[in-house]
Design brief:
This protein is of the alpha+beta class and about 160 residues long. It has two domains: about 1-40, Orthogonal Bundle (Arc Repressor Mutant, subunit A); about 55-140, Lrp/AsnC effector binding domain/regulation of amino acid metabolism (RAM) domain (Alpha-Beta Plaits). The protein contains five helices and six strands, in the order αααβαββαβββ. The chain has helices spanning about 1-15, 20-25, 30-40, 80-85, 115-125, and strands at about 65-70, 90-95, 105-110, 130-135, 145, 145-150. The strands form two sheets. It has a four-stranded antiparallel sheet. It has a two-stranded antiparallel sheet with strand order 5-6. α2 crosses α3. The termini are far apart.
Length: about 160
């Protein structure tokens, strides 16, 4: 299990690592690492690989919002049916069942705040099972998925002798 966790931790930090890279980092045989990665993919533990992009540098107009939803669970299906309905929208990046004052946290991406507001008003809040929504717009990312986005300020102090 420790071997598996080490592989997963490395892949989670950098999805571009090859089996050879991981084997070198862990001091293991490449074939063992490759077989373990293949097994983890087959079992659905590794669901895919993703590149983390700082969209603010390339498309600063993109708007991300986290939307708290209170919903009415469906008889016999709980929250699963409404979650499937919500994650089918192309604007939706994430849907998570939560404990606390709301049921689902939905992350939405749009071309502007108005686009996100229109999505919430016209598509999300009109679903029969949605009781209420609360939208929180992301203003700035500092750290996402363990990666620090904020650039460190340069030390501009002058050394005098």
């Amino acid at each position: 299990m420790e071997f598996t966790r080490k592989i997963l931790n490395l892949l989670e930090r950098n999805a571009t690592y090859t089996a050879k890279d991981i084997a070198e980092l862990l001091g293991e045989e490449e074939v063992c690492v490759a077989e373990e990665i293949a097994r983890l993919k087959e079992e659905g533990v590794i669901l895919g690989a993703k590149t983390l992009i700082n969209w603010d540098k390339i498309a600063p107009e993109l708007t991300v919002a986290h939307i708290e939803l209170r919903v009415t669970p469906q008889k016999g299906e709980g929250f699963d049916k409404i979650a499937r309905e919500i994650y089918a929208f192309p604007e939706v990046r994430d849907v998570t069942l939560m404990s606390g004052g709301y049921d689902l946290m939905v992350t939405v991406v749009g071309n502007s705040m108005k686009d996100v507001a229109m999505f919430v008003g016209e598509k999300l809040s009109t679903l029969d099972t949605v009781v209420s929504t609360a939208t929180h717009f992301v203003l700035k990312n500092y750290k996402v998925d363990g990666v620090i986005y904020a650039e460190e300020p340069k030390d501009e102090r002058v050394i005098t002798l």
